[in-house]
Amino acid sequence: MRHLHVLLNKYKIAIYTLFIFSMIGIVAMLYRDIRYFFLFFGIGLLDSTSRILVVRYPKLLQFFRLTLLVLIGSSLFAGICLIIGVNFQFIEIFFDLSAWVVTGALIQLIVARLILPFFAGNAFCSRACWNGAFFEFTNPMKKKTNPKKRSPLLAWGYLLFLVVLGFTVAFLSPVNPAENQEVRMWWIIGENILIIFVGFFLSISWGSRAYCRTLCPFITISSLIAPYSLLKITPVAADQCTSCNACNKACPMYIDVLQAVKDRKRVNDSMCILCERCVSSCKLNVLKVATKMPKPHYDKETKLSSKRIAFSYLNLSNDEANAANKLL
Questions:
Q1: Where would I find the beta strands (DSSP E) of the chain?
Q2: Do 132 and 202 share a domain, yes or no?
Q3: Which residues have CB under 8 Å from 201's CB, separation 6+?
Q4: 28-42, 54-68, 186-200, 205-219: segment of lowest average pLDDT
Q5: CB count, 10 Å around CB of 138?
Q6: Which residues fall within 8 angstroms of residue 31, CB to CB, at 6 or more apart?
Q7: 264 with 150, same domain?
Q8: Which among 86, 111, 80 is positioned nearest to 177, based on CA atoms?
Q9: Of 172, 205, 222, which residue sits at a domain end?
Q10: What is the pLDDT of residues 155-200, one digit of tens each?
Q11: 157 within domain boundaries
Q12: Which of 122, 291, 306, 325 falls 20 to 30 Å from 161 in CA-CA distance?
């Protein structure tokens, strides 16, 4: 029984992941059709498998994560966007609302940006986003010392611009992309090329994943919920930290992970995408993704020393101290 408990605790994040995606798949299947169950169950199965492999082979964490990102991202974009013709980009939501239809963009907003952030924050960005995959492999490895900081005014201004543009195109253009497959396909290709083009050149002057950090409307929304996420980067061995700053250097979102370690707090930054680059960069295994902070650990000698100090303040005799120690 104890062995089973240890095993479940070891793989609990993988189990949580598969369960949550399965539940989402069942709800989506009841609302739409069985294809949605296989879609979400498949994503959950891939993600939970990668997490199990990471537990077994922790040094290959980034290899498994990037493989997962490529598999899911390319499947969503090539299989669902280009072949089926579903547009997942933010502006499509307003095309659809104008035509009173529900497609992939709204489903992504609800699932990936309103439901999953309570469990895994902005993890969609580092495990499923095809634009994010492009930025992962093309952004400069050497980080800028003075990156462009996120501006809420810029982020929400861009989101509002997309809302206005979406409704304007839907109501004033001759054809609403939501009602015409050919027009929608041009929007799918054009939007993704534009995001990749803008994001690539912004990263040169503003630092890694500049589009994600400063403009992406989806992360602007999910970042409101991400601080309340169950899973966070957690300093599980803060005492081992040597302040080498490797975690900060590795973070593509320019989060001050080291300060969280020093404060013995979980990384609560709304921009964290759970890419775990900080985890991989730490040679002393100070960090990991966890559901809570670990309990303070005291060895037997430390406990005895604490008791002796307490007894000395109480002016107890040796016999009294021994009796009290047995009771404790």
A1: 232-235, 287-290
A2: yes
A3: none
A4: 28-42
A5: 12
A6: none
A7: no
A8: 86
A9: 222
A10: 999 999 999 999 999 999 999 999 999 999 999 999 999 999 999 9
A11: yes
A12: 122
